[in-house]
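User:
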Amino acid sequence: MVGRTNAVSGCKVICLGNGRTFDVSDIAGYENLTEDNFIVEATCLNCSGNCEITQTGYEWGAGSPSATSSSSLVKSYNPDTGILSCSLSSDASGTNSDGEGDKAVLNVHSDVSSFRVHLVTGQILAV
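Assistant: Predicted structure:
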């Protein structure tokens, strides 16, 4: 189902609503759309993780910290069916060691269970 529309500089912006999968096959010319026509906003984030401390009384702030993170937003549009699918996952980890074998480890994983998507039709200008 297609939501509100607003004219913006000769373009039309259509709010497709919230979800993970969107069907735009009822829009004329959907076969000519690409992933670039869709603006995706994450609206509901689920997180899970754990923290492991190898010594009782260890303080996270003491020692030599290090951290890494990565995330990936995937928009997949099939112009034959008019279906857009969205996914995003993110992982982060951190360690902190005191140099004497004691350390704290933090691991977090998150994924998005819902997206708000807008479809932009017409001429799209780069900013």
